[in-house]
Specification:
21% of the residues lie in helices and 27% in strands. By secondary structure, it is α+β, with helices and mostly antiparallel strands.
Length: 239
């Protein structure tokens, strides 16, 4: 074969492989969870850098991918009035970071030793500490607040309503002074009509919860600060 033709053929094959690799990279099934691979990544109102920003995410932060337009992912976000925004696909991966992949669903059998049912709820919840918040998330790929509580209690066979405002209809009422580990906590801002947040009591005036976009599952005090001020009610789901 003529050397020039051989070089041209190799170049054509290389280009074809590159195109195939690009297509494969963007073969994403929606909806799914994506993770930022860079810091200060802008969330924009449209699929181009000319559009304004709603905010930023950093390395490892999770977002809910719902579609794609060119080289931009469409994401679900409460930051936008319309409920969605855009983020550059160049800095998003659908492969979960190591700290997320290490978190697997936990299966607990019957009560063993002196561990109460409520303490087992806490044990399951604590497996997800550090997991990024995902708006609308209800799996170990990422949770919102009520998705987190629903998932945790489901592991012990208890079904909760999916939305935080409706979870007050689950379980039986319990006063704040009588809280026990594993109790469901509900929060409502002063003057608001609806419950806006839920968490799980772990004891010693602390809860574990999935706070908000850009944050992770963590502990928080319910006896001082913000969550003390908007504490509304509690429900005992397990006995």
């Amino acid at each position: 074969m003529n050397p020039l033709k051989k070089i041209a053929r190799i170049a054509a094959i290389t280009a074809a492989l590159a195109i195939t690799a690009t297509i494969t990279t963007f073969a994403v099934e929606f909806p799914c969870t994506g993770y930022s691979t860079g810091d200060s990544l802008n969330i924009r109102s449209g699929p181009d850098t000319i559009y304004g920003t709603y905010g930023q995410i950093n390395t490892g932060d999770a977002v809910q991918l719902i579609g794609q337009e060119g080289n931009w992912y469409k994401i679900s976000t409460p930051l936008a009035a319309c409920g969605y925004a855009y983020i550059s696909a160049d800095y998003i991966t659908t492969t979960a970071p190591a700290q997320v992949r290490s978190v697997a669903p936990v299966t607990y059998g019957g009560t063993s030793g002196s561990v109460s049912a409520g303490q087992r709820v806490v044990q399951i919840a604590e497996q997800f500490l550090g997991l990024p918040y995902v708006y609308g998330g209800s799996t170990p790929a990422g949770f919102d607040c009520s998705g987190f509580t629903s998932y945790v209690f489901k592991q012990l066979g208890y079904t909760l309503n999916r939305v935080s405002a409706d979870q007050i209809n689950n379980g039986v009422p319990v006063s704040k002074s009588e809280l026990q580990p594993g109790d469901l906590l509900l929060f409502k801002k002063q003057g608001a009509a609806r419950i806006h947040h839920v968490g799980i009591y772990v004891g010693d005036g602390m809860m574990i919860h999935s706070p908000q976009t850009g944050d992770v599952i963590k502990y928080a005090s319910i006896v001082n600060g913000y969550y003390n001020d908007c504490y509304y009610a509690a429900r005992r789901i397990v006995n």
